[in-house]
Structure formats: structure tokens, C-alpha cells
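seq as requested:
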Amino acid sequence: MPVTITVGLDGTGHSVAAADWAAHEAARRGAALRLVHAWAWRAGDTSYVGDRDAEERMVRAVLGDVESRVTAAHPSLDVSTEVVVGDPVPTLVDEAARAGMLVLGSRGYGTLAGYLIGSVSLHVLRRTTRPVVMVRETHPDAPAPRPSGDVVVGVQDAETAGGPVLDFAFGAAAERGVPLRAVYAWEVPPVLMWSPGSMWVAEQQGGLEPVHRQILADALKPWREKYPRVEVVEQVGTGPASEVLLSRTEGAQLLVVGRRTHEPGVRRLGSVTHAALHHAPCAVAVVPHA
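C-alpha cells:
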């Protein structure tokens, strides 16, 4: 069976942009596209139509309109649609578990951090164990996305645990036939800032940056061997990881970041992933890893 890319629709322009992105991705991969609208009837909620049958018709019309839109752009694409009765978060988490990728719309820039992406998307991102791509609706006055732009990956976890993130990023670059830009950020440890002797030793060994360049090179080596045709650009920067990473995303068509799944306590995205979702100028893939 072909891999399925699933899109969560909610009737907004952001989710339509997500469907457009996912349809193009499915056509490129030879994957099936599944359009899902998670719908829970809430009698008395003034944000809804107010009549169950009328609201259901509206939801199905949204699905039908988007289906017509993506099939017009990709006539040979295998597209299916479904209205799933249930709360959006658990529904989309279940859909993600059965798909190769879940694609959602992102509200993009805003003023309140908790509402930039949307509460449903944030909860889904925190709970799913499958890759989720967040796609922002393009402003009419904004320049068109560059399909030839490269794929950027933030290498936060240089150990084996970060493997799923790198595998996804290398695979995305290979499918697109574009370079992969691997970005690794480091900061001077406070102990070295206050220890002249330690700094002297580091300088005698060529400084700290070559050490971190080697860390990045070692992390990429297995994936370079797996994807020998992918051109890789290694970039090491000093400073906060989110700032270093975002400064390298200009002109990119996709940014890939990770999310740890093994940390105890409250599920969270991490500061770098959170910053990427709110400020990256391109689609952002969040890949869970151990």
C-alpha cells in the first residue's frame, strides 16, 4: 500500500494551504492523500452554525471544496476524504498514527505565543509520535515560496537519538533533489568563560569551534552514507540555538526540527522547536525522537 499523507482541515485558509502543500508532497512521493475534518457537535456553542444538520453539511462542503481544489491541481492523485466525529486532538493524533505524515495549518505570526499556532495543533504536536508538518498560509503580498529552496535541519541531538530527525531531513532533501543545510549551534560553557587556564588549553587545540564542527560531522556521517546523492552544507554557529537556526532559514522550502518524546513530566515542544514553529518563513516538520 502507498504511504498516506493526512491533512487536518478546519475550514480556515491555513488548513487549505496545508492541503495544497500536502497534495504537492503526495504527488511527488507517489503517496495517497487523506483529507480529514474532525468534527464534534456542540449544541449551544455560538461559534458554530447552531443546527447539527446544517453544520454537518457545511463541514462536508469544506471537504468537498478542498478535494476539488487538490484534484484539479493533481488529477492523478489518490484522494480520500472523511468527516470524523470526535474531538479534534485525539482524532488527529489517531490519524497521525496511521499516516506517514500529518499536515496541519499554522496561523504563523502573532502576539500571544499560546495562540500563534492554535491550541489543537499544539496539543497534537505534543502528543503524536509521528512527523507533523505545519504549513502557514502565504500572505497575498508575500513573495511566492521557492520550490528550489533547500531543506534545513536543526541538529540539536548529535547522538544516535536524533537519528529520526536527520533521516527525515535527508529523505526530504533527496526527494526534492535539493541540498540539505545542517545547522548546529553551540555556546561557550560558563566554566570556560571564568577559567583562563581552560581557555588556554582549548586555544592550544585550535579553539572550541573545530570540536563542534567535528561533532556535527560525526552526527551526519551515517546519513551521508545512506543518502550519498544529497549535497550537504554543514553550518556551525555560536549563540542561542533558536537564533542560529532561524538565521539560516532564508530561502528554505522546509525546516526540520525534533521533539523529544522520552522526557518525563509535561509534554513540551522545546524552545528551539517552539521558536521555529512561530517564526520560520517556511513549512516546519516536527519529528519526534527518543
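Strands lie at 4-8, 32-39, 79-85, 101-106, 132-136, 151-154, 180-186, 232-238, 254-260, 283-289.
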